[in-house]
Design a protein that fits this description.
The structure holds 2 protein chains of 2 kinds.
Chain A lengths: L1 H28 L13 H11 L5 H13 L14 H36 L4 H15 L2 H19 L12 H31 L2 H9 L3 H13 L1 H16 L2 H6 L6 H9 L3 H29 L1 H5 L1
Helix pairs in contact in A: 1-13, 4-5, 4-7, 4-10, 5-7, 6-7, 7-9, 7-10, 8-9, 10-13, 12-13
Chain B lengths: L9 H34 L10 E2 L4 E6 L14 H10 L4 E3 L5 E3 L2 E6 L3 E6 L13 H12 L17 H5 L10 E5 L2 E5 L7 H4 L10 H6 L17 E7 L3 E6 L13 E7 L3 H9 L5 E4 L4 H6 L4 E14 L10 H9 L3 H9 L5 E2 L15 H4 L9 H15 L7 E5 L3 H18 L3 E5 L2 H10 L4 E6 L7 H4 L16 H12 L3 H17 L3 E13 L3 E2 L2 E2 L6 E2 L4 E2 L2 H4 L3
Parallel strand pairs in B: 2-11, 15-16, 15-17
Antiparallel strand pairs in B: 1-2, 3-4, 5-6, 6-8, 7-8, 9-10, 10-11, 12-18, 13-17, 13-18, 14-18, 19-22, 20-21
The chains are: A mainly alpha, B alpha+beta.
């Protein structure tokens, strides 16, 4: 088991190095640079600014310096937020994205498993049809539409009640998180519901379930131990990548609900060619994603010993 | 599988399993609630919101900011979001009144001569730690702006001061800058060349004061956090959670009783999303919000009082005047000019209620010697004339010796308004002149990169004012201006710009601007498109919110909450 984990970690480090290198050169090949602004700079002013950021050196040298800093865990200073270190930006804003993401994943996972099991139990009956209708909706409607519509609906509800039931936007309390987390988790929840449903349907008529029924085990026990437990495996497989995807993909939801998460820095940095923030967030998110995949692999090994053998 | 083929135990099994599932659902909900409570506890109650849009009891309002201010060190800031914050917490020598006229700030009076200027500072202007704002604070700040080590992108705006340019070029030390503190209350400035508009210039953010001992005590962290700044404006930045919220509190030491009426201004939300802002406004969480065209019908239905303001920016199609481009040919440009009419773009295509068709390089609000420049020197009246346009096109064809014109590259930004405008021009020039226009849609930085390197024939461009003088637009197409990205180069234009820069007689200066305007039309330097404006709505309980073209884009320093009696209710 330990050699398995170590091997996966070593692979992860190489992956992250590759991400960092590819991003570095791709970014420098995009036309334009972070120093371009509405107001043109004279050659002298520009040279001053370039020297300040070390952009006057050849690209190869910049890359070596960059890798050196990366190993020391120093991402540098943002080009657009000139007084902030990228490390500070990640430290201050990632917890917000992570909190929102974790909550969204919990909603998605709990909802996905429960709804999926329910639709499988009642397949081809009314609950199945109703839930699957919403599942299709959840999969096909993009999150920015869901976010905007749900926010608008909340404004309507607040106005009708005459009190603020839930805050329309912002961040800070439990109540601020509820709606954005639900919206953010909606797509994944729909996806997991479908996955859980088909996976449930596969095991529902499996031999061991028939055996269990023949043995006269109680229905609740068969359902939990034989059906749910086996059906949940594929759901766990996709959970790791979904955690990373949700945590990193919250940009739109963060924008609509005015949440100070890392997502907006991630997207704005690319638009503004903020080299240091692009590198910082990409490498950070890349490492995070790789780490989540490793965690899931290891978890999977615990749940299904067959994985460890291979 | 049909219903009858289900296992016999089916319904009983489903029921039992369903009950079990319901139980799990209940457990899941309890666990989720517990986790949420835990998370909420972990992040702490950092919410800055609470008072709602208008809190009459606390004399406070809640507003939004478009983005986190990127740079509050005024010597280095370049963007509108930072300007808006600095306009509330800092004050320069000169500031603006409610009508946008210059009024004394830290300087109680000033004198501008041919060779320099003198500012007499008031003795009740104080820093937020109680020490007086002195002439030395301006000397320190301005030297920092021009110092190459600071790498200030706006250093160019100080070039009228003696030696400023040489210092940024690294040829002279910063101490040689033509500014000195004659005593604590008198600031003397020497000019590189006569600068009749210097009073308007120093109202700009780059000229704000900075105190040396405080700056040095921050160890390079100046303006990184709320406690890393010293304030001298009507408000103090008392709280700053990066990317999330800010709080401006009334500055008790501020000298001017005519500014800063609110005790507190909470910036509880930072978002660019206009729809989210509209929802917050409807929910009475923020005091004002912008309205874009699709929102106007609902706003009118709700009988909101819709305000408008011009943000000062003029948008235009800029030609590439470099050699080898067809757009260098004057007849070609003339043909394009005669084939279009900006009012069609504004009223029939863009349909933004607060936009107006641009008639010239100079926006309608720019002042001349006595009154509006537009009255003193009206722009050439433009009329679309397709027959004449085609004549010019034919002339251009002969002059250039072409059978067919190559496709015209129209460089454009990727915002909805830019995209719409670009598509409109593409269709227009095809229909009216038979020209093929290729749209090159680029993000902000990429568009700037291509503008700088000249990879375009036409570019959708715009220019906003830095200071309240016609020169902020007037020198744009001088051969030496780096913002002249089409590289327009004319001796006639340059000569008039030199007059506008240093002529002390306001009437002659205004005439020079009139000439610049005439040349830019007759030589078809650009095709003016529109002057940008915004519709916005303010909570009726709030008075005196100012939005304007020059100075901070939004100004709450004159805002006050109406008393209950004025309000008519409560």
């Amino acid at each position: 088991m330990w050699s398995f984990i170590l091997k996966r970690l070593a692979q992860g480090v190489i992956t992250v190095w590759f991400i960092a290198t590819a991003t570095f050169f791709a970014m420098h090949n995009v036309p334009g640079d972070p120093l371009l602004n509405d107001r043109a700079m004279t050659a002298a002013i520009r040279a001053n600014v370039e020297a300040k950021y070390g952009l006057d050196k050849p690209l190869g040298e910049q890359y070596v310096i960059y890798l050196g800093n990366l190993v020391r865990g120093d991402f540098g200073i943002s080009f657009t937020q000139e007084n902030r270190e990228v490390n500070d930006i990640i430290r201050e804003h990632f917890p917000v994205s992570a909190t929102l993401g974790v909550l969204a994943v919990l909603f998605a996972a709990a909802g996905g498993v429960l709804w999926g099991a329910l639709t499988a139990l009642y397949r081809n009956r009314l609950p199945d049809y109703v839930i699957m209708f919403f599942v299709i909706l959840g999969i096909s409607v993009p999150s920015f539409v869901i976010a905007a519509v749900s926010q608008l609906a909340l404004v309507g509800v607040n106005a009708a009640l005459g009190v603020t039931l839930l805050p329309v936007a912002g961040w800070g309390t439990l109540w601020h998180m509820l709606l954005p987390a639900l919206v953010l988790g909606m797509g994944t929840m729909a996806y997991l519901t479908r996955l859980m449903r088909s996976s449930m349907l596969e095991v529902i008529s499996a031999d061991y379930v028939r055996t269990a029924k023949a043995k006269g085990l109680p229905a609740a026990r068969i359902f939990t131990k034989h059906q749910l437990r086996n059906a949940i495996l594929p759901v766990i497989t996709v959970l790791g990548p979904s955690i990373a995807a949700i945590t990193t993909g919250g940009f739109v939801v963060e924008l609509v609900f005015a949440i100070p998460g890392l997502g907006r820095y991630f997207v704005q940095a690319v638009q503004q060619l903020d080299y240091t923030v692009i590198m910082g967030t990409t490498v950070f998110y890349g490492a995070f994603l790789v780490f989540m995949v490793i965690v899931v692999d290891v978890l999977y090994g615990f749940i299904d010993p067959r994985v460890r053998m291979q | 599988m049909s219903e009858t083929q289900r296992p016999a135990s089916g319904d009983g099994f489903t029921q039992a399993a369903g009950t079990q599932l319901a139980l799990y659902a209940l457990v899941a909900m309890v666990v989720l609630a517990a986790i949420m409570a835990l998370l909420s506890f972990a992040i702490g109650d950092s919410s800055a919101s609470g008072g709602g849009a208008i809190d009459a009891e606390r004399n406070a309002i809640t507003i939004t900011l478009r983005q986190e201010p990127p740079q509050l060190d005024a010597t280095r800031s370049t963007d509108a979001a930072s300007f808006a914050v600095l306009g509330h917490v800092m004050e320069g020598l000169i500031s603006y009144d409610q009508k946008g006229q210059l009024i004394p700030g830290v300087a109680e009076r000033w004198e501008i001569r041919e060779d320099g200027a003198t500012f007499w500072l008031r003795d009740d202007a104080l820093w937020s730690d109680g020490k007086p704002v002195t002439a030395a604070d301006f000397v320190f700040a301005w030297r920092r702006v021009v110092d190459p080590a600071t790498a200030s992108q706006y250093a160019f705006i100080t070039y009228p001061i003696q030696n400023a340019e040489a210092i940024t070029n690294g040829d002279l030390p910063p101490t040689t800058l033509g500014v000195r503190a004659a005593n604590e209350r008198r600031l003397e400035v020497d000019f590189q060349q006569p600068t009749p508009y210097f009073d308007k210039l120093v109202a700009f953010i780059t000229f704000l004061p900075l105190r040396q001992d405080f700056f040095e005590s921050t160890n390079g962290r100046y303006a990184a956090d709320a406690d890393m700044m010293l304030y001298n404006g009507p408000y103090l930045l008392s709280e700053w959670v990066h990317g999330a919220s800010m709080r401006w509190t009334k500055n008790p030491l501020y000298w001017n009783d005519e500014k800063g009426f609110l005790d507190e201004i909470d910036i509880a939300y930072i978002t660019t999303d206009v729809n989210a802002k509209l929802n917050l406004f409807k929910d009475a969480q923020i005091a004002d919000t912008d309205l874009v065209a699709p929102m106007l019908p609902e706003a009118m239905e709700r009988r909101w009082h819709i305000d408008r303001f011009m943000d000062g920016t003029v948008f235009f199609l800029e030609f590439n005047h470099r050699d080898g481009r067809v757009t260098k040919n004057k007849n070609f440009r003339k043909a394009m000019q005669l084939a279009q009419d900006p009012s069609e773009l504004v009223y029939k295509v863009l349909k933004e209620a607060a936009y107006i068709p641009a008639e010239s390089l100079f926006p309608s609000w720019i002042r001349g010697a006595q009154e509006l420049l537009r009255r003193e020197h009206p722009p050439t009246k433009h009329e679309m004339n397709l027959a004449k346009a085609r004549e010019h096109l034919e002339l251009a064809r002969q002059e250039l010796g072409l059978d067919d014109f190559p496709p015209i590259v129209l460089l454009s930004g990727d915002t909805p308004v830019s995209t719409l405008s670009a598509e409109y021009y593409q269709e227009l020039f095809k229909r009216n002149l038979g020209l093929e226009v290729r749209i090159d849609l680029q993000t902000f930085k990429q568009r700037l990169a291509k503008m700088t390197s000249g990879e375009f024939d036409l570019v959708l461009s715009g220019w906003g004012p830095d200071y309240d003088d016609a020169l902020t637009f007037g020198d744009l197409f001088s051969s030496w201006n780096l913002n002249n990205r089409g590289r327009y180069d004319s001796a006639d234009m340059d000569a008039n710009i030199r007059i506008a820069q240093s002529e002390l007689d306001p009437v002659k200066r205004s005439a020079a601007f009139g000439e610049i305007q005439r040349i830019s039309y007759e030589d078809v330097v650009i095709l003016p498109m529109y002057e940008r404006g915004w519709s916005f709505v303010v909570d009726p309980r709030l008075d005196g919110l100012i939005r304007r073209a020059v100075g901070p884009e939004v100004d709450y320093t004159y805002a006050k909450i109406r008393s209950a009696s004025q309000n008519g209710d409560e």
